[in-house]
Amino acid sequence: MKNYYYLDSSEEVQGPFTLSDLDSMHKGGKITAATQVCEESTENWMPFFQVPRSTAPQQTPKVASSPTSTNTTLVNCSACGKSVSRRAPACPNCGEPINEPKAKSPQETIGIFILLMPLVAALLIWFWIGGMNLLQNPSSTLMFLTIGTVIGTGVLVGVEANQLGIGGDSDTDKKGRKKTGPVGWAAFTMLMWIIGYPVYLWYRSKYGAKNMVVGGIAVTFIFLGAAVLMNAAIEEKKGQVRDSLNEFQRSIDLDGMFDE
Question: What gap in Å lies between CA 148 and CA 230, rounded to an integer?
Fold first, then answer.
């Protein structure tokens, strides 16, 4: 029967153990599926879940050398955070390349757009819609700008969530259930913007992005405040026009009475 060594959390080689022993350790939580394991007769380290279930007779055994001496120390995967051998071409848990240099992530660029879009919309409300007269229908423009901002931020949230791997195949909770993905976050942001928008700007920090919740809360109040105040100002203007028209109508009626 084959014997195996494994690398513990201190990067020390432990063993030898039979495959049955390792299975028991895995069930007991002492090792994980990503724990690096080496067959006694080789120096090839691999994650435990990749160990072949073979009953072939064991060759002349030799103690496996420390991975440190053969340049196979463990590194943390930049995508999922699991421990994996430096020699591995890709993480066995999520498939992320280990040794290939990663291109600069655009995630913060999208995050900045998510943060600034409602702020730009607030400026347009004050300086563009605020300068309209009633004949230019500012109410409809305000409505379309508000809805467009909510939908636009929701779309950007979905795009960035997809880039960050939120809700991906390997993104599960402690019970193994898949977490909310890009579509869910986009829908949440659009349907419950006042809550979903700042919550997402906090949640993205769990995936390596910056925590923008403070700025998100401030922008939420600025945008909604601008929209509410501008709508009130438009309605006040409409009321003034209605009052003027009513006054004018009354004056015409009075003139008609005197003419009679």
Answer: 16
